[in-house]
Amino acid sequence: xxxxxxxxxxxxxxxxxxxxxxxxxxxxxxxxxxxxxxxxxxxxxxxxxxxxxxxxxxxxxxxxxxxxxxxxxxxxxxxxxxxxxxxxxxxxxxxxxxxxxxxxxxxxxxxxxxxxxxxxxxxxxxxxxxxxxxxxxxxxxxxxxxxxxxxxxxxxxxxxxxxxxxxxxxxxxxxxxxxxxxxxxxxxxxxxxxxxxxxxxxxxxxxxxxxxxxxxxxxxxxxxxxxxxxxxxxxxxxxxxxxxxxxxxxxxxxxxxxxxxxxxxxxxxxxxxxxxxxxxxxxxxxxxxxxxxxxxxxxxxxxxxxxxxxxxxxxxxxxxxxxxxxxxxxxxxxxxxxxxxxxxxxxxxxxxxxxxxxxxxxxxxxxxxxxxxxxxxxxxxxxxxxxxxxxxxxxxxxxxxxxxxxxxxxxxxxxxxxxxxxxxxxxxxxxxxxx
Length: 435
Ligand SMILES: Cc1cc2nc3c(=O)[nH]c(=O)nc-3n(C[C@H](O)[C@H](O)[C@H](O)COP(=O)(O)OP(=O)(O)OC[C@H]3O[C@@H](n4cnc5c(N)ncnc54)[C@H](O)[C@@H]3O)c2cc1C
Known about the structure:
Elements: E1 2-4, H1 8-19, E2 25-27, E3 39-41, E4 47-49, E5 54-55, H2 60-68, E6 73-75, E7 83-88, E8 91-95, H3 103-120, H4 134-139, H5 142-148, H6 153-166, H7 176-186, H8 194-198, E9 200-202, H9 207-217, E10 221-222, E11 227-231, E12 237-241, E13 246-249, E14 252-254, H10 258-261, E15 265-267, H11 271-279, E16 286-291, E17 302-308, E18 314-319, E19 322-327, H12 329-336, H13 340-355, E20 364-368, H14 387-391, E21 402-404, H15 414-434
Parallel strand pairs: 1-2, 1-14, 2-10, 7-17, 11-15, 14-21
Antiparallel strand pairs: 3-4, 5-9, 6-9, 7-8, 11-12, 12-13, 16-19, 16-20, 17-18, 18-19
Helix pairs in contact: 1-9, 1-15, 2-15
Bound molecules: flavin-adenine dinucleotide.
């Protein structure tokens, strides 16, 4: 079996295949494993995450893998004391909740959230296409739904600020059905529960999960092996690498991000299935990490969590003195248009405004422009209105000997999606062999 891509999906699939006695080789384009989990070590040894970081209690496949690998879970920023900061156009506000101006505005938000909770239960996350109203719910953006239930402008704005904090696209460019499906997948009845989705992290650093699996797989992982063409046939499959080398195997496990898979030549796979794979798209976003000697945001009573309407969609403390931030797709172009030094200045100005003068002076800033990374071409899946039906029920399914996995094949991405689909795809391939 040839596994394409050494992200968490490809590695967890390969690990299970090898454990079951299958001959699996992982082909990875980069000179490192991990894909969208990537880690640096600061001079003093602190691990710094430039990609995926946090998980929640509902992320059972990921938590199980972390346990198997002997890694340690610790609470994430969700439990850090202090006030959250809202960096809004009219000024900076701090508190334990979004600064609605009136009780009526807050009551409207709560009313709309109750309506939302009622709808989440009507969607089967494994089969959203079977919803009697699937087409209408998919064509509608979250914003359109909010207007249809007479949400106040303050409710709509609050939800857009929250959506851009997660950096997977504005509520005006997100399918309502996709968002209901995502909430249904983890039993979330709020618009987004940070406790459910983000309360834990791997103490050794999330990239360590990939490193440990790669260490187990040893020379079965081939780095700098960029796949350019895949030929699938029951009699045998062939993979062409950028170097011109051809590698053969009985079956293929495609664990590539969808933006990349759409650009690799794939032959011998049913046209509808390929179209489904290629129609999925990513949010094009960036992560910024600022490193300080201490947690400077505490100087102003802040917990390091912010949601903002300027350049940064959100910030959160990664660990002592390390602040993560996301730049959502709507603002990514602005970041790209700046020179590298102007990018640093823009981030310094913003952090200074949000957290006070000491936050203006990090000892280092890392800009990780995932949206233009050639081996990722984005951040996580973004479901535009209409995309759930365009991608259709072939989403995340296999056509043996062509198997598909990757975080994009689960509701909206995430570390959980990578591990869950990777292990499920390995199990499907092993089942097909046994049968
Ligand atoms: C900035 C950022 C923050 C995030 N934060 C979180 C978070 O806090 N919590 C969470 O749950 N999720 C988070 N995510 C999402 C999560 O990191 C990803 O969904 C997950 O790591 C993806 O794993 P994957 O294996 O599906 O894909 P990837 O990690 O993208 O792996 C795909 C692999 O394929 C390789 N590849 C690409 N092209 C080729 C080719 N042509 N030939 C061979 N190999 C190729 C890539 O180099 C890569 O190694 C975040 C993602 C980003 C970018």
